[in-house]
């Protein structure tokens, strides 16, 4: 199979959407805006079928990522996320992924409101890998 992102052969991951025929390599997934669920039953979605946050808010101008303190995009995107509980904490996907890898499942929480339940379940759905350690 050919990767729809890099066009090279050897793609082993297929979009889980029923009628989608896109295949990709795991390393290409992030670059192509794909989402992989790292919870049993592992599944992956191309950029067109990936789950999106259903929170209807936009950041105020000049809003910073609470982890790296750099500006976030002016709207919710694949790279920019918001806490589903407080709807005020904005962060970059890469920043929260780094936080998740350090914190693990028992300690990952919203950097602002400290919500665990809603925050953690949304991170799993949006493809943030959270180790069970």
From TrEMBL:
Keywords: Ligase, Metal-binding, Zinc, Zinc-finger. Transmembrane segments: none annotated. Residues 65-114 form the RING-type domain. One of its GO terms (molecular function) is zinc ion binding. One of its GO terms (cellular component) is nucleus. Residues 1-50 form the PHD-type domain. The keyword Iron does not apply. This is G2E3 ligase. The lineage of its organism: Eukaryota, Metazoa, Chordata, Craniata, Vertebrata.
């Amino acid at each position: 199979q050919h990767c729809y992102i890099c066009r090279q052969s050897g793609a082993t991951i297929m979009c889980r959407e029923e009628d989608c025929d896109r295949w990709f390599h795991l390393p290409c997934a992030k670059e192509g805006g794909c989402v992989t669920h790292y919870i049993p039953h592992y599944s992956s979605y191309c950029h067109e079928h990936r789950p999106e946050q259903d929170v209807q808010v936009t950041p105020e101008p000049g809003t910073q990522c609470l982890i790296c303190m750099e500006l976030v995009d002016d709207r919710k995107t694949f790279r920019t996320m918001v806490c589903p509980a407080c709807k005020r904490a904005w962060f970059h996907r890469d920043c929260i992924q780094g936080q998740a890898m350090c914190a693990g499942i028992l300690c990952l929480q919203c950097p602002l409101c400290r919500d665990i339940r809603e925050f953690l379940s949304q991170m799993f759905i949006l493809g943030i890998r959270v180790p069970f350690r």
